[in-house]
Design brief:
This protein has 15 helices and 15 strands. The strands form two sheets. It has a 13-stranded mixed β-sheet with strand order 1-2-3-4-5-6-15-14-13-7-10-11-12. A hairpin with an 8-residue loop joins β4 and β5. It starts with a helix and ends with a strand. About 12% of the residues have low confidence. This is Protein zwilch.
């Protein structure tokens, strides 16, 4: 026991310097870690603190001594777990968890003078993963010191229990009974209630009557005061936050063609970095060489027909081949009408399927420039190698370029980067979602090509988010603008992360039509009394997924196969209850 005390204090001291996310072996059968700061807390639904100890069953590696493990008392330390992910955390038996809670309480109790602790340190709260092997199906036990200044005056104990999943609403609690039980337990005459509901919006939204299902997730969290009944629909005066985690590349997305274009750009960037290019499936049915040859022939005819003096002041703006652009995006992501020669070439050459084909295309282009057969127009400010050759051709002579090694790949990557940057800038500025100054970070040429590609990926992810919110949720500028600012701020400070959840405060009325007739993914009510250290809280929650990561079920998020209370489509829910009790030392 004394070893546990000193080890616990040592872990805490180290944790003050650097939060310990990696579990440490606490005893033969127990791991401990200190979670805090920006780390996601596994008990955030039931407790609002910051730093916290998490205890769980130790997972022994292959080098562990099996004889040592066999000495463990299975009756005390063993745990019959509910089905769980093999790679996830493992729970302790409830009896073992209670032993550890008792130890934690003892070392925090100033009256335990026989422990001879020279300096009593207030430890972070302790939460222990439990296997639900007791009659109450306990999944968490917790303890938190109560303080008066620097003095520990008692301990707040927490117990979280879980049943289910079930679709039978007769198992659901009655709100008035929950309130009366809370008043009786905590000797309070007045209680307050606060509701929370989370609805999944992307599952309920549709494109052309097709239900959207993907790894992406758009949901809304809604909180409100004064709950009248269990599972009530949140009132419109509630506070709401939209949660958006969107992965690019859904074939049903209006900007899927642009996504495929980006994938070709990424393949070139990878080839430039590794020397090996894996050519993706061509975006066009016709070969890139034939497309480039036809394009150059067309330019020669236009030059012969319109440039009589050879010094024409008017520039023909030739649009990209529209066959490659999904017509469904035009109202959201409109095709630019100011594509220059290099950008039009990209539209032809993004169907290149081999290194040899790439060389053939550039050979045709350079010969046309050398012979003065074309006088292409390009945007100002481009620093690509092809743009430099075009500018030199205006003066009748271009430098010799060796189309070998990585040079052709770099040339194509450069013109693709230029073109796609302008596409994204055109969208964000055209929709009045950002200024050119604010976009400067994403289109800067002061960083190397690989970093430029990385930033273009960020632009595309933000575009997908804006388009999805426009198509699926019918968002207008007043909502898209603040969302754009949130996304851009994040991506100026962080690498690409399509699993990141972007959050936007909204009014519930904005998305009510998507959830008002739907089942919530999570619904909970907090019943509380008193304030500050004396606050007591009871939480009752239903959720379609297990409320803790060390418990899973094959039935999560599914509908019941049987009919319950006359309904043939009842949602399966886990029922969770979190309660607290206080013990005072003085």
């Amino acid at each position: 026991m004394y070893l546990n005390v000193s080890f616990s204090l040592r872990i805490y001291e180290e944790g003050r310097e650097s939060i310990l996310e990696r579990p440490y072996l606490f005893e033969t059968d127990v791991e401990i870690c200190l979670i805090g700061g920006s780390c996601k807390s596994p008990i955030e639904r039931f407790w609002n603190g910051s730093s916290v100890y998490i205890l769980q069953k130790a997972r022994h590696n292959e080098e562990s001594d099996p004889m040592e493990e066999s000495k463990m008392d299975d009756a005390v330390y063993g745990s019959e777990l509910l089905p769980k992910e093999s790679s996830g955390p493992v729970a302790l038996s409830v009896s073992r968890a209670k032993q550890l809670i008792s130890l934690y309480t003892m070392v925090q109790n100033p009256n335990m003078t026989h422990l001879k602790i020279s300096e009593l340190v207030v430890l972070p709260p302790l939460w222990i993963r439990c296997d639900g092997s007791d009659p109450e199906h306990t999944c968490w036990l917790g303890a938190e010191p109560l303080k008066a200044g620097n003095k520990i005056t008692g301990i707040n104990f927490y117990m979280v229990t879980c049943d289910g999943p079930t679709a039978d609403k007769t198992h659901f609690a009655n709100l008035e009974e929950l309130k009366m039980a809370h008043k009786k337990k905590h000797h309070s005459s007045i209680v307050m209630t606060k509701g929370f509901a989370q609805y999944e919006l992307i599952r309920a939204a549709a494109i052309e009557d097709t239900i959207v299902e993907s790894e992406s997730n758009i949901s809304v969290d809604i909180t409100w005061n004064t709950v009248d009944k269990v599972l009530e629909t949140p009132p419109l005066i509630s506070a709401a936050t939209l949660n958006i985690a969107l992965e690019s590349g859904d074939p049903r997305s209006p900007v899927y063609q642009l996504y495929r274009e980006l994938q070709f750009l990424l393949a070139l960037a990878e080839g430039l970095k590794t020397g090996v290019t894996e050519w993706p499936e061509p975006l066009e049915s016709e070969s890139a060489v034939e497309l480039v040859r036809e394009f150059l022939t067309d330019l020669k005819r236009k030059l012969d027909g319109y440039c009589i003096s050879g010094n024409n002041n008017e520039t023909e703006k030739i649009k990209c081949d529209t066959a490659a652009v999904d017509s469904s995006i035009k109202s959201i992501f409109s095709e630019r009408g100011d594509l220059d020669f290099a950008e039009q070439l990209w539209c032809k050459m993004r169907s290149v399927s081999s290194y040899q084909e790439l060389i053939e295309c550039f050979t045709l282009i350079i010969k046309s420039l050398e012979h003065g057969e074309i006088q292409p127009w390009i945007h100002q400010g481009s620093s690509s190698l092809l743009s430099k050759l075009i500018q030199q051709s205006y003066h009748g002579k271009i430098e010799v370029i060796s189309l070998s090694g990585i040079t052709p790949i770099q040339m194509l990557l450069e013109i693709g980067l230029d073109k796609m940057k302008k596409d994204y800038v055109s969208f964000f500025i055209g929709q009045e979602l950002a200024t050119l100054t604010y976009l400067d970070y994403f289109i800067s040429t002061s960083v190397d090509l690989q970093e430029q590609v990385h930033r273009v990926q960020k632009l595309h992810h933000m575009l997908e988010i804006m388009v999805s919110c426009t198509v699926l949720l019918q968002f207008k500028h007043e909502n898209l603008f603040p969302l754009t600012q949130i996304c851009m701020k994040y991506y100026k400070e962080n690498p690409l992360n399509e699993k990141h959840v972007f959050q936007l405060p909204i009014r519930p009325a904005l998305v009510k039509k998507f959830y008002q007739n739907d089942h919530p993914e999570i619904w909970k009510v907090d019943i509380s009394s008193a304030h500050g250290q004396k606050e007591a809280k009871t939480t009752w929650q239903v959720s379609t997924n297990p409320p803790v990561e060390h418990m899973t079920s094959n039935n999560t998020g599914l509908f019941s196969d049987s009919t319950v209370n006359g309904s043939s489509e009842e949602r399966m829910y886990f029922i969770t209850m979190a309660q607290c009790s206080q013990v005072h030392f003085t």
